[in-house]
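hey all, quick one before standup. I had two proteins in the batch that finished overnight and I want to keep them in one place so we stop losing track of which output belongs to which input. First protein below, input sequence then structure tokens straight from the run.
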Amino acid sequence: MRRQVRWIAPVILVAGLVALAAPSAFASPSSLPAAGPKATNLSGSITVSAASSLTEAFTQMAKDFETKDKGTSITFNFGASNALAAQIQGGAPADVFASADGANMQKVVTSGQVTARPVDFTANLLTIVVKKGNPDHVATLADLPKLTTISLCAAAVPCGKYATQMLSQDGITIPTAKTTLGQDVKATLTAVSAGDADAGIVYVSDAKSAGGTVTQIKIPASLNVVAVYPIAPIAASRNPKLASAWVHYVVSAAGQKTLLKFGFLPVPAQ
């Protein structure tokens, strides 16, 4: 099935968060050739395994890419990055992997599924989402332990790891009995929008995608963390030319413009 689904931030904000971002061993977008490889005579299809938080942005980018390069088809397998890495390591067909963290990308690099150096292509921030209208009057992270049910991503999922890091550094403990865990960030968001949880911690991009179904409570830069996303072609890709062209499109000016539109951030300077 095709395309499975299962504020441009001020520069000062990004700069203020650099110290909280996990250091990356991967390349920056500027390390790629400015124009990328010659993308002539592209054809065929590829499957991109991508973090679920990229659903809306990548879906739009695929439409734009396919319009630009007739005869190409981009199909997505969206999910939690840890699950996608495990699928790729298990031999599931994929041509490109885009992870919401460096740790899961490193897994497929170490096991040999990725031989090209991954590129950090975008970043994200965490935010609080609450029921529409904020009936519990949540104002800060410190209000979350007072609620009945808080939706978080599972511990092994990048958004869960980032949330755990943020809460720990901010000295906030949410009782396990009060949490419900989502298999990925979309499930975590849905628990709030459907009314099954009073609040949740998700990425800014996902809160943006939810529109008016939830209310967003921004987390100050001093309390937040940065999620950095790497991307790389899979070594066993059946269409390496198209896979490489997609990676270059994602880091191109056009791709970056779309990511910003959907609530992502530029990669922090290292």
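OK second protein, same deal, sequence then tokens:
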Amino acid sequence: MPTVTLNRENAEFWNELCGTGLARSLGITEPSPKSLRRFDEAYLRFYPYLGQYVFVQDLQGQRVLEIGMGYGTLGQLLASQGCRYYGLDIAMNPVAMMRYRLSLLRLEDGDQVQVGSALDIPYQGATFDYVYSIGCLHHTGDLGRGIAEVHRVLKDRGKAIIMLYNGHSFRRLVYLPLLRLRNLIRGRFRSHDGTADRSRWMRAFYDKNAKGEAAPHTDYVSRAEVRRLFQAYRTVRVESQNCDPLVLPGGLVVVSREKLLNNLARVAGLDLYITAVK
């Protein structure tokens, strides 16, 4: 798909804030400060490991760029650490949400949060001390270029904290192939739009909107591919995080997700968290 077309489709898709499903489950319908606190508390309970990628850094006074802001939980967490926060997103609504959150923190940095593409970051080289991008670059359609752009805008010895979907996760290697085989046998394999589009069907298991439509594009990477993609960096650490509960075909949960976060998730989790130093 041409980059211009994919950018347009991504802008439309991600205008529905990433995290909207969680907000609905909490009964949140408006972004009041109280509602956002409830959302953030639930979000950080669901992703309890996220803090270790924020609080181990000394962000005071540092220039920090976040690419892909969603509901703004991570952005507000970063900004509250005393850094000089900048935000970039392909869609307008995440930008508006993050500007609103910064206003709640009484930070006059709204102009530093803008609409733009991760494939053409609108800053000069060697601008940032840190770049965070959690679950964004694998949707751009050109993962290598996105990672190269992050490298370009980082200062020497700057640090990138990137989350990409794990191509060797339990979901990808075991659960989805078995589910697809079962559905094919039963003659029930269909994507949301009624077609037998395997890629779209799989993408919807990772990101879908309120209509059930899958994200326009998703890449999945192995640890070896991460090493290749980040070869321009001095050091690269890759950690596996996140997972699904173990569920029987009838929907019975055998092992809860929480019990798997420190074992299965650390080996074959859904996400790869990459910490790379330029």
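Flagging for whoever picks this up: The two ends are 31 Å apart (CA to CA). The chain has eleven helices and nine strands.
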